Amino acid sequence: MPIVRKSCYALMLSALPLSNGYADHMMIPSIDVTAESTSASITQPNIDVARTEIEKVSGGVTIVDAEQVREGRMSNYNDTLGMASGVFAQSRFGSEETRLSIRGSGLQRVFHGRGLKLMQDGIPVNLADGSFDFPAIDPYATSYIEVYRGANALQFGSSSLGGSVNFISPTGYTAPKFEVRSELGSFGYKRLGIQSGRVIDNLDYFVSLSGYDQNSFRDDADQDAQRLNGNIGYKINPNIETRFYFGYTKNDSQIPGNLTKYDQEHHPSRSQNGAYPGNPLLAQTGVWERNIDLWRIANKTTFRFENTQLELGAFYSKKDLDHPIIDLGMFSPFLPTLGVIDQKTDDYGLTAKLKHSGHLAELDNEFTIGITPTYGENKDRRYRNFNTHKGALTNDFSQTASNMEIFAEDRLYLTQDFSVIAGLQYTRSKRTARDKLIGVTGNESYSETYTQTSPKLGVLYQLQPQVQLFANVSRSFEPPSFGELINPATARTLKAQKGTTFEIGSRGNSTHVDWDVALYYAKLKDEMLAISPTAGSTDAFNADTIHQGLEMGMTARLPLHLEWRHSLLINHFRQDNNTSFGNNQLPGIPRSLLRAELLYRHDGFYAGPTFEISPQRYSVDYAETLYADSYTLLGLKVGQKVNEHWSWFLEGRNLTDEKYAASVETFRSAVEAGADTRRFLPGDGRSVYAGVTFRY
Question: What is the pTM of this model?
Answer without folding.
Answer: 0.92
